[in-house]
Amino acid sequence: MIERRPFEKLGKSNHGWLNANFHFSFAEYRDPARVHWGALRVWNNDRIAPQSGFPPHPHRDMEIVTYVIRGAITHQDHLGNQGRTEAGQIQVMSAGNGIQHAEYNMEQAETELFQIWILPNKEGVPPRWETVQFPAEARDGKLVPLASGRGHEGAIPLYADGTLFAGTLKAGQSIRQKLDRKPAYLVPAKGRIEVVGRDGKPVAANARDGIAVVDEPEIELKASEDAEIVLVETDRLN
How many CB atoms are located within 10 Å of the residue 156 CB? Predict the structure, then answer.
């Protein structure tokens, strides 16, 4: 099954400094049919005004991945971690047994990002934060694992049964991605794509649309125009 979830029908929240769209139930947005997808619990498309952001707040027992689409995000936490993550890069935070953190857009222009939460496979772990500068050119024409609980070499480790992939396709390019019938969710950060499963019928997706996939051994991704794609593949929940 491949289902398109149009951007214009996502949950919405606008606080002035933060313009957010929710692929799954979050904060005041509630949809009992969209609480999680496999172990994927949250996928928010946040646009943060310059010189603003999320003040210090706590989390527990969640794997939180931030994928920056444009601009940059600056992280601080009670463990003393500080760092700036730029467009095309990710940061990973394991909330574990408790972390207090803040995220700010210290830039002079709006920052846009995906905030992605994955349910952990181990609770009560020591909290941590990590960012790595992945070379953007290494993702040309393919999806590369950037964060993984499955031992992908070079990826930031997760305490979760899942992997976050990202890549770019030029218009007319296509690639195949094995899923082994596991739940997957993908969003074009930029551009337009088609997703084709075993029935051969293309499902078109514009930038920021969500595509939910399940029970597909493999999908084909075709770029109708230059595209940047983020995909999370996880195990089913018991």
Answer: 20
Question: Would you state the pLDDT for residue 77?
Answer: 97
Q: Is the pLDDT of residue 238 over 80?
A: no
Computed from CA positions of residues 144, 149, 151, 157, in that sequence, does the dihedral angle turn out positive or negative? Answer: positive
How far apart, in whole angstroms, are the C-alpha atoms of residue 55 and residue 156?
A: 25
How far is Cα 82 from Cα 130, in angstroms, rounded to an integer? 10
Helix, strand or coil, per DSSP, at residue 38: coil
CA 80 to chain centre: 25
Residue 55 is encoded by which pair of tokens?
Answer: 């003040």
The Cα-based distances of 233 to 39, 92, 125, 209, 236 in angstroms read: 9, 16, 22, 17, 10
Which pTM value belongs to this model?
A: 0.96
Residue-level pLDDT at 237: 83
The residue type found at 5 is: R
Q: Which two tokens stand for residue 93?
A: 């935070």
Q: Residue 36's closest CA among 57, 56, 63, 14?
A: 63
Which whole-number Å values give the CA distances from 129 to 81, 104, 210, in the listed order? 7, 15, 27
Compute φ and ψ for 12, nearest 5 degrees. Answer: -135, 150
In eight-state DSSP terms, residue 81 is: -
Each residue's pLDDT tens digit, 71-114: 999 999 999 999 999 999 999 999 999 999 999 999 999 999 99
